[in-house]
């Protein structure tokens, strides 16, 4: 195997290759050898730099939501979140699906739970009030997870045939959890 001498550190090349391959093929569909070949590195270096395929996956696959989505006026936050998730689909979807596919691995499942909490429940909960705000934030997160599953895992494109109606209806349901007394 020819080694790349571009000045790009081996660790960075491995990370970039892993990020791309995990998003394209998922955790189970990507081997350490695949990553090494794409990074033009020895497979032993993948393990030396990251410890294991699972740890590399956790480092390479990090979906992030735009925090500004939670800054929308509270009365329109439900529709704003649905719109934002539909808009970021192609950037966010591969990482989300890769995490779901890899969630049979304990550390990946724990990572997914942490992302769920940090990226959605906590920012949403911080905007809500009432004694049941935590429960409603968790229900809203579960509802969004169901939407993402239907759109990105099952691939039910019929849900968004009329995007405006979908945003209005699904966003309205989500809004009922965010501001139930409004």
From TrEMBL:
Gene3D superfamilies: Tetracycline Repressor, domain 2
Top-level taxon in the UniProt lineage: Bacteria
GO function term, MF aspect, one: transcription cis-regulatory region binding
Pfam families: TetR_C_16 (PF17920), TetR_N (PF00440)
Domain HTH tetR-type as annotated: residue spans: 8-68
Residues within the DNA-binding region(s): 31-50
Keyword tags: DNA-binding
Classification via PANTHER family: HTH-TYPE TRANSCRIPTIONAL REGULATOR RUTR, TRANSCRIPTIONAL REGULATORY PROTEIN
Official protein name in the record: AcrR family transcriptional regulator
Organism: Catenuloplanes niger
């Amino acid at each position: 195997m020819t080694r790349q001498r571009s000045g790009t550190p081996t660790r960075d090349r491995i990370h970039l290759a892993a990020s791309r391959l995990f998003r394209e093929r998922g955790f189970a569909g990507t081997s350490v050898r695949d990553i090494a070949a794409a990074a033009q590195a020895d497979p032993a270096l993948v393990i030396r730099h990251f410890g294991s395929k699972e740890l590399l996956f956790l480092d390479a696959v990090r979906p992030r939501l735009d925090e500004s989505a939670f800054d929308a006026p509270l009365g329109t936050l439900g529709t704003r979140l649905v719109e934002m998730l539909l808009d970021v689909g192609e950037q966010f979807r591969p990482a989300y699906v890769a995490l779901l596919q890899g969630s049979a691995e304990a550390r990946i499942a724990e990572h997914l739970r942490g992302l769920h909490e940090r990226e959605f429940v906590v920012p949403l909960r911080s905007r809500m009030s009432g004694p049941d705000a935590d429960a409603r934030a968790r229900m809203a997160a579960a509802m969004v997870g169901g939407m993402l599953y239907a759109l990105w895992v099952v691939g039910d494109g019929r849900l968004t045939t009329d995007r405006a109606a979908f945003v209005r209806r699904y966003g309205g349901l989500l809004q009922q959890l965010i501001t139930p007394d409004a």
